[in-house]
Structure formats: structure tokens, C-alpha cells
Amino acid sequence: MTTPVPDSVPNAVPKPVPSPERWEEARLADALRETPRGAFALSGAAVALLLMCWFAIYVFVFLPRGGVG
Amino acid sequence: MKSERDILRTELQWTLAVGAAAGVVSLAILWASLAHLINPPSNFETIDPAALHLSDEFTESNLGTRVEADGEVVTRIVATQFAFAPSCVLVPADRPVTMRLTSPDVIHGVLVTGTNVNTMIVPGYVSQVRATFRTTGDLLMPCHEYCGIGHSQMWAVVQVVPAERFKPDAQGRAACEKR
Question: Which of A61, B2, B37, B65 is the most core-located residue (most Cβ within 10 A)?
């Protein structure tokens, strides 16, 4: 007695496992794809904070003290 | 992986952002200068630093506050290692005051706390700052340019009093009240 073979066989072939080197490269590529956005966010936040502090001192401290010459 | 073109575009975007920030700050400074007339004190006037005691203006007897013949209030101060002479100057509130400072030895700097008075004092030159003091009280005036081992002990006081308490003598001189 033979086992009937179904019309569609589930994909029994396992996906090829990438080598550790290729896996690292893929991770690096993923990270570098996101890097500019992260750098923009970090440097943008730093510069925005600096500008806010500068303007706060300018408006609330420097201008009220009045002119010198 | 980002291409060279992407990196260049990112750098240009950031350059524009930083350029815009610097532009906004520059406009604010320009606005203060033109609309509020707030400018760095600038005065080009030379003097012999080795002969201050022989000069007409910065002799010891002429230091301190004096109301000139035209009514202008002028303070004359010599900054020297490691003290200001005099150590206290009396000025009236809500009235323009001209501060004139010079040094016989090394570079000093001065600021008056709570005000925008801030200038360097360079031997050979007379620094001049015009200001109007709005609040009364004793304002600390430290040396803010490192001038030697006693720098941290070098400070003076600007005593701002209401106009009715500012009473110069017959020669127009006014000195700090006893404290």
C-alpha cells in the first residue's frame, strides 16, 4: 500500500540560512538606512534647544536691561 | 545603504537648517542694534598707561563720580592688579551715566551685574560705556578677565541711588555712602 501524494505539497524546502557574515551585513545596511533620520533628530533637537535658550535669555534678560553704548 | 547622492542631499539639508538658525539669530541682533540701539560699547581713545597719575583725567583725585559742567554724570575708574580705584562708585538711577575706565598694567574686564554694562579694559586705551541704571542698590562689579593671581579678589561696587539721594558736592563730586 502506498501513501497517496497530495496535489500540492507544502513548501518543505527550508529557506537558505544566511551565513553569519551576510547576516551582519544585512543588519548594518538596515542600521545605516535609519542613521540619517536619527542624526537629524538628535542634532535638530540639540540645535532647537540651544536656539530656544538663546532667545529666552535674549528676550527675557538682555532686552529688558536696556541699551549701552 | 545610502548612496553618495543621498548623503550629499542630507548634508545640504542640514546646512540649510543651520544657516537658517544663524540667520534668525543675526536678524535678532540686528534688530536690537537698529530698533533698540543696543550695541557693544566702542570707544577708540588712547592714553599713556605709564603716566595715568600724571594725566588730567585719571589722577587719583579725579577718580570716582563727577557731574560735569554740562550735567553729564561721569565715573572714572582705574582697574589695576588687583583692585578698582575707587572700589565703590555712586551713580543716580534713571539718569544716563558715562563710565570711563582704563588700566595701567594688564588687560582687565568689567561687568556690572544685572545690567548690560560689559567691556574690556586694555592698557593704553580708555574704555567707555554709557548706561542708565534702572534699579537702585549695590551692584557688584567684578573683573571678568583673568589678570593674575589676585583676580578673584578684584571687584568693586556700583551704588545706584534714587535721584533725590544723589547729591554731588560743590565740585560736582559724589562718593558712595558709608556702609
Answer: B65
Contact check, Cβ <8 Å, A36/B6: yes
d(CA B50, CA B60): 14
Q: Which residue has the cell 560699547?
A: B41
Which is nearest to B133 in space by CA: B155, B156, B112, B119? B112
Residue of chain A minimizing CA distance to B117: A68
The CA distance from B149 to the nearest CA of chain A, in Å, is: 31
- Local mean pLDDT, 10-residue blocks, chain B (179 residues): 77 90 93 83 87 87 91 94 94 94 95 92 94 92 95 95 90 82
Cβ distance B32 to A35 less than 8 Å, yes or no, reads no
Locate the DSSP E strands across chain B.
64-67, 73-80, 83-85, 88-92, 96-102, 108-111, 118-121, 127-132, 137-142, 155-161, 173-174
Contact between B115 and A68 using a beta-carbon 8 Å cutoff: yes
Question: Nearest residue on chain A to B3, judged by CA atoms?
Answer: A33
Burial of B5 (0-12, 13-18, 19+ CB in 10 A): exposed
Structural domain boundaries of chain A?
Answer: 37-69
For A1-58, the pLDDT digits (tens) are 556 655 555 556 666 677 777 888 888 888 777 767 788 888 889 999 999 999 999 9
Nearest to B39 among A43, A55, A69 (CB): A69
Query: Does B131 contact A51 at a Cβ distance shorter than 8 Å?
Result: no
